[in-house]
Queue: 3 jobs
Job 1
Amino acid sequence: MTTLTTAPLAPLLLRLFEEAAAATSPAISELSSDERMRLISSKTEYLDLYGRLKDLWLPVSREAGTMLYMLARSCRAQTIIEFGTSFGISTLHLAAALRDNGGGRLITSEFEPSKVRRARENLTAGGLIDLVEIREGDALHTLGTDLPDTIDLLFLDGAKALYRDILELVEDRLRPGALIVADNADVSPDYLARVRTPAAGYLSVPFEEDIELSTRV
């Protein structure tokens, strides 16, 4: 038995995934696919894009959530950084791993206030809020100070154009063997160029569709 597969977390996640699947956002239909990709790739307009999408959950898949839990357990993570909290589904999986690892600290960043409030509610309902610090604001600022000396796992699932910037912001604290998981990494070519260059200090492979799994060597 694990925290992930028992109450209160298991039934909570079941409900949250169902809510996420049913969520809609009128704002997304107003954008053409080309405009959406342009905004996703922009380093200056990402706040506008994700502000428009505040009603969408944008969660990891059920399989990806389970994978995050497994990776955090397997590396015995005690310190985790997450870029992009949204409504907290991935955060719940990572915090569950910390609980089953014996405790730790998860710092996650989200700029949309309504999502921060809901994520806190979900983490409280899941009995995991004591392990998580949610920092509200632009992650380029919130993750720029007061981080743990060593980081065991970094999960990137916020504005795709910032993946490389966030990695470089925290990488001097990544311990040897630390894991970096990037969702939707296929739309962040500069990030992929960084982690797929051995001289940069990483080994990296595409994993589970558009997830990139890397380790700090």
Job 2
Amino acid sequence: MKKLIPQFGDAILESRGDAFVTLARSIVGQQISVKAAQTVWDRFAVLSRKLTPAGVLKLKVDDMRAAGLSARKVEYLVDLALHFDSGALHVKGWADMDDEAIIAELVAIRGIGRWTAEMFLMFHLMRPNVLPLDDIGLINGISRNYFSGEPVSRSDVREVAQAWAPYCTVATWYIWRSLDPLPVAY
């Protein structure tokens, strides 16, 4: 970390958008390129005057499909909107909930897995000590920066990250910067 932080000292980790939009964008962007995701998102976002859970629930499936969303992603976005709209998510309580409790709420939504929930904790809720063990960028970055490019296991990642606590989010972000200096916005 002593070598990485000075290289990227001016860049900062920032939260963007509201919780619903952040999660909706993550669903739209799954398994497609960043450019394709932005194109689909732009088409999807104009379907509703304001992108809210209630607004998404009013959209027609055919219109969402015409925007470039797969049938599965339409299902996921509707489920996300239903979870927000019904109050099944404790959005106002997230500030007082621990990371694992929030992850448990989020993974109950179709189309959101642990990695997406962890990205949400990091980039939206700005939780300081998230270690996304399934993130290939983190694994590759630790391999490159700590093990001279040799393959690393999850236990290797945990061992390296012990020194980062309670700021694993920040350290992960610097590891990602070591692989790609341009920060990704979620």
Job 3
Amino acid sequence: MSSDPTLTKLPAAPNRRRRADFVIIGALLLLFLAGLVGLAAATGWEETVAQFLRLSLAQIVLLLGLSLANYMMRALRWHVFARRLGLVVSPAQSLRHYLGGFAMSVTPGRVGELVRMRWLRRETGWSVERTAPLALVDRASDLAVMALILALAVSLTAGGMGGGILVAGLALCVAYIATRPRLIAAMVTFGYRLTGRLPRLFARARIAARSLHRFGQPRVLLAALGLGCAGWFAEGYAFHLLLGWMGSEIGLWKAVGIFVFATLAGGLTGTPGGVGGAEAAMIALLTLEGVPMEVSVPATAVIRVTTLWFALAIGIAAFPLAEKLSTRGRDALENR
């Protein structure tokens, strides 16, 4: 009895797809573990736990709640950007994509967060080059917002953050460049002419760059800036509260400025989660404000746990759900 040769070939494609999924997830896991090792090495766990024990449950919940407010504001901004780009996604989809991406926030250079593009490709069918502007404008929006908050903090305080304006200006310049379609396209073209290689990759980069014009409308920019400012200020305010609870009140805007400056400084280092650079900048600036080391070091550790580590924990919890639902979305898309 002869068999239809097409029947023997059908299982091969799903098997290859599953193997590809395992390879991708394995690579992301390795990136995640590399960032986690660096993060653990830079944070004094014993000291952090001791400080947590001194805080009341209500205080810890408030710190975590302010951080959660930041994540929710930025997730809403992500949804605004996604809809503006033309993606047909629900608020629930955007929320799980954004929060799930936090699981990879401690990968080197945060490249692991590109997993969001993978989930969008599965659920909407959009290629990575079409959704890449979403990640770019989200990061640029963060830079612009933090630069504005830092500039305001420096203008409202005296001393202690002499490099604040320089860092704010640098962040604004990067944010401006990252959202200029013609400028990005010109840089991509120059890169291709310089190397003469990978024409398909550079072509995809040009396609992504052209999509940036969708985010240039004033109402979109104002919504993004408003949500971003509210979110990042919430975490800066949490740092202000924490310092007060530890007996080192330095003023609201100084605390907010130090938190934002340190976060930006950590990001510029390119280390996973800004580890090392952020902590060093935060402790140094607190010392300049007269905060003793016995307060500045544990305060830095605690605020990093309630912001970076908390985001990581949320991401780890959301990642399996986002992965599972994106797989279902891909299957449903293929069966249409």
